[in-house]
Structure formats: structure tokens, C-alpha cells
Amino acid sequence: MAEPDERVRDMRADVHSWPTGRLLSVAARLVEGRFDAVLAELDLTHAGMITLHHVVREPLAQRELAVLCRVTDQTMSRTTERLERSGFIRRYSDDRDRRRTLVAITPAGRKVLKTARREERESDVLLGAVDDYDRFREQLIALIAVVTDQGGFAE
Amino acid sequence: MAEPDERVRDMRADVHSWPTGRLLSVAARLVEGRFDAVLAELDLTHAGMITLHHVVREPLAQRELAVLCRVTDQTMSRTTERLERSGFIRRYSDDRDRRRTLVAITPAGRKVLKTARREERESDVLLGAVDDYDRFREQLIALIAVVTDQGGFAE
DNA sequence: TGCAGATGTTCAGCTTGCTGAACAAACCCT
DNA sequence: AGGGTTTGTTCAGCAAGCTGAACATCTGCA
User: Fold this and answer.
1) Which stretches make up the HTH marR-type domain (chains A, B) (predicted)?
2) What is the dihedral of CA B67, A35, A125, A21, to 10 degrees?
């Protein structure tokens, strides 16, 4: 590994001056990235995993899924398309409202979700970086709630 | 605004069961999203803003910038291309090592960065969602440092 | 009944992440 | 000096965000 030069050495100091949004973005990328190889092995993605998580209990319409996953309808459309291609969900149109596409998890979907969750839990050990992990998560959740309500989304 | 149905109403509860990476990802998207319109007005993006931030002091090679911004060289290549197109930076090859492309900020770049920072600081008020904002940021930074070191990046 | 507006999904096209591969320039070692 | 390796950048192509627009279906009201 190459010796970083002077400018690169003060990386940690530098990041202090970043806006919070960018800190969140980088942290998300790095944390999710740690797990990408495992998911790829399973033919799954982070977006797909959360989507599966939401249809475990009962089939949902794509729009409902989009709201739950905090993405646009268009993004959810592509995510479900990919999940269907992989055989993890089935899509069918609602008899009572044929505009709606219902999404139901398949046995393969349940299985892969279970595996992914187990492996994720195991790799989560490294998050000892954060002192009070539960509080940190609560703050993230509070942040999401506030921004969601205050017009960041679905206002 | 439509009345959310039952399943959608327990959104806040649901998010508690998400993996931390996904929480970070959604939070990042929502927080950065609040500011997208302002940046678009300035012909700037979040990625571009952080890049400008790093060349304010002195010109840097693209690879150095990539390390500082925590992105791959390829991503930085495209980001600087866009910044150059907008006139916020100038790229030129290093005389002493003609493999390197040096990136220097332009007067227009300094100006737009200043404006973006001011507007961002103002809009940051809403982050009162988090109790101990400084501690929260410190934890994000610690997380980034740990994951960066432990092979999430440049190992 | 029939038409206007609301709703759910998809299509097209953009940005910004990523990886893998290509390529030129520089470095190093004999 | 020459040739293999390293280094810095770019190209190609994929995933998953986004917006705007198109399209089909449903709802509601005259």
C-alpha cells in the first residue's frame, strides 16, 4: 500500500468541515459497500432486500412499497422488475383495481431474505465504531421522520 | 394530500427494523434532497460542491481528490468533467508528471462555492431533529474513519 | 351514460455511485 | 537503453436514485 502524501494524510481532519448530508452519503456508501459482495453472491441488492422485507407479511401494491422504502414509484418499478427477474417476487395485477400491480414474495424470496439477514447481522459487528449504537440509530430514524414530514418527501 | 392507509401509517415503526446502512442511505438522500433545487439553480451538485471544497486551497491531482472525497477515480473523472463544463474548475496536465491531471478552481468556482455554503448553512436549521448534533456528526465521522480503514476502501 | 380528473405504473433520460478493462506515461531494474 | 511493472486517467457498462411525460384504469359527477 502506497504511503499517502501530506495532503492526503489529513483526511480525517478534513471531513469535519463537510456538510452533514455529505457525511451521511459517504457513510451510507461505505457501510452498504461492505456488504455488496455478499449480496451480489445472492443475486440481491440493498434496495431489493428492503423491498422483500416489506412484502414478507402480505402482498402490497408497488406504490405502497415505494412509500415504505422511501423511493419514487419509478425507482420501485425497476427494483421490483429486477426482483421478479431473479425469482424473488411475483407481480400480478389487482383484480379489484387493475391499475395496481401487487407484489408477492416467493419461497425463493423468503429464503434469500433470511440468508441475507443472517449474514448481515454477522458483519454488523464492525459498527462498534459508534459508542451508543442504539441512540445513533434512533437519531437517524428521527432525522428521516422529520425530513419526511417537513416536505423532503410526499408533502 | 391523501390519507395514508393502515399499512402506510406505521412507517415510523417499520423503519426501526432496517439495517443501519439503509437508514444512512435514506437519511442521506432525504437530507441532500432538501438542497438539490438550490444547487441545481447554481448549476452545481453535492459531489461537485465537495470537490470544489477540496481544491480551494491549492490545485490537486484527480486521484488525490478521489481519495479525499471517498469516491473512485472513475467517479471523480466524471465529476471534474462536469465541473469543468460549468466553468468552476480548470484541468491541465502536470508538467512534472504528464500522467497526472491537475484540477484548479476558477474565480467562478470560488464564487459558487461561497454561495452554496451560505445557502446550505441557512437550510441546515432543520437538523434540530437530532438532539446532540455535534456528537451525531462525530459519530458519522468515526464510522467513516473505521470503515475506510478496515477495508471498506483503499485497503 | 359519459367525460374530466385522479391514480398507478411505466418509459425516457439524467446523475453519480460502482467494477473491469484499456491506454499512455513514468519508474525501476538489469 | 530496454522491457516489465506501476500509476493516473478514461471508456464501457450496470445499479439505483431522480424528474417529467405518457398511458391505462378507475372514480365521481352532471
Assistant:
1) 17-149
2) 50
Chain A residues in contact with B26 by the CB 8 A cut-off are: 70, 144
User: Within 7 Å: CB of B109 and strand C?
Assistant: no
Q: What CATH architecture does domain A21-120 belong to?
A: Orthogonal Bundle (1.10)
- Judge: A143–B130 Cβ closer than 8 Å, yes or no: yes
Rounded Cα distance between A17 and B81, Å, is 24
Domain B44-119, CATH: 1.10.10.10
pLDDT tens-digit series, residues B74-126? 999 999 999 999 999 999 999 899 999 999 999 999 999 999 998 887 766 55
* Model pLDDT for residues A79-125, shown as the tens digit of each residue: 999 999 999 999 999 999 999 999 999 999 999 999 999 988 777 65
Instruction: Tell me the domain boundaries of chain B.
Output: 44-119
